[in-house]
Amino acid sequence: MFVKQFFNTTLRQTVRNSSTIFGLSSGFGKCGVAVIRVSGSASRAIIDKKTRLKSFPEPRRAVLTKIFHGQTNAMIDRGLLLWFPGPQSFTGEDTIEFHVHGGTAIVSAMYDSLATFPDTRIAEPGEFTKRAFYAGKMDLTEVEGLADLIHAETEAQRKQALRQANGQLSCFYNDLRTQLVQAIASIEAYIDFAEDQDVDDNVLSVAVQNIEGVIGQLKAHLNDNRRGERLRNGVRTAIVGAPNVGKSSLINLLSQRNVSIVTSIAGTTRDIVESHYDIGGYPVILGDTAGLREGTEDVVESEGIARARAYVESADLLLLVVDASRVETVDRMDTYLREYMETLGLDADMMSRALVVLNKCDLLTSGTREQLTAHNHSFSFLSCQTQSGLPELLERLKTRLVQLCGDPSVESPTISQERHRYHLKQCLACLERFRDYFHEAGASNRDLAIVTHHLRNAVRCIGKITGTVETEEILDVIFSTFCIGK
Question: Which ranges carry the TrmE-type G domain (predicted)?
């Protein structure tokens, strides 16, 4: 594995000689089956002491056995035992999985029993995965993908996390790194052997050309409109409009529960009310905002309107709700929308992020609705009262979400972490400094040591993403997001 080439022997030895750890890898609480994982050098002794098997179990084969307390020899439960000898295990160490009944008393007894073995302790959050990382089983992008996979709540999030956990993003970054390392090797070979005939004179131009290709790949990767991050964190969607147009009714309808208070009194919603929702497999954070209007003397409502405008500025998508009953003709609709946007303070950029929802369409005459439909197909007709038009609105929303987040099942892996984006920008800056210096300095004044310095910094930036540069602060933040048994 790529990571194995870079972690020093001392660090490896420290991890190899560390304590044996155990933890609950299944969900907490009463359940049918609880999976307790054990990893470390004491695993073989634990099997011998806690079971009465006549022969040692075969690797990766479930064995039904009685499980005893390691100290009192009292029977705890009858369950399955799986043995994963290192290095062919998740952590790279000797590993056991006990599949026992999920009662609280049984799990507690298992913990009490395992703690009696010398140098054996309960695992810290994420420690199993951390040991897998140190053993070279996965790099940091795969670790983060695994964490996202565990926390995925929608189908699209699952697909994106699975691709990252399987190493597709890692392969892309490792390929970039390989190209940079090859360029450094070529330039250093030119420095050391320029006077020999074994090194071609065009080796520098070829290296520069390859770096230009890496710069192009990085720019294309960064120019993703933050699709991966939106998909991972949720598409922030603001429901905006004038007072009493049905914004709170809309969030209640989409959420299928009473999230916001609905009354006939204008200005009922004062603060941002958020609700998380799954639309077509995409995560959406719906935000009900205060009705936008000018001239209110209510201090609390004024603060709510200010917060609403700030929320709209940061939103990825807007649902602009219009009271359809106030629209009489097609010509009036165009004028009304223009005046409506001006009143709400929405500029052209905000409107490009908006879906127009004509609420209370049940109050429209059939003739007016037909005229509006023929005039503009981008409107979504909806009645929060009767739920008419809801399927069509959801379909339009899904189409827009695909545009904002992409399709993780067919597209190349995208950036899903702000940490990745930061280091990639730093890498790009180093490569651009390399390119600018190489072209501006001229052949006679060019210091190739400075050239390779920029390239080495670029390599380090990628290493901070994949974990080939040891930065404990980064590791602690990443692994702390895991639960105890992972």
Answer: 234-402
**367-421 pLDDT per residue, tens:** 777 777 766 657 788 888 888 889 999 999 999 999 999 888 887 888 999 999 9
Structure tokens that stand for 138 in this block: 């996965």
Is residue 123 within 8 A of residue 131, CB to CB? The reply is no
Helix (H, G, I), strand (E, B) or coil at 358: strand
- Give this prediction's pTM: 0.80
Rounded to whole angstroms, the Cα distance separating 335 from 415 reads 42
Give dist(CA 315, CA 285) in Å, integer.
10
Residues shown for the chain:
486
Cα angle at 485 between 55 and 106, to 5 degrees? Answer: 65
Q: What's the longest Cα–Cα distance across the chain?
A: 88
Nearest to residue 44, comparing CAs of 94, 115, 79? 94
Assign domain 150-224+415-467 one CATH number from 3.40.50.12650, 3.40.50.620, 1.20.120.430, 3.90.1720.10. 1.20.120.430
d(CA 110, CA 113): 5
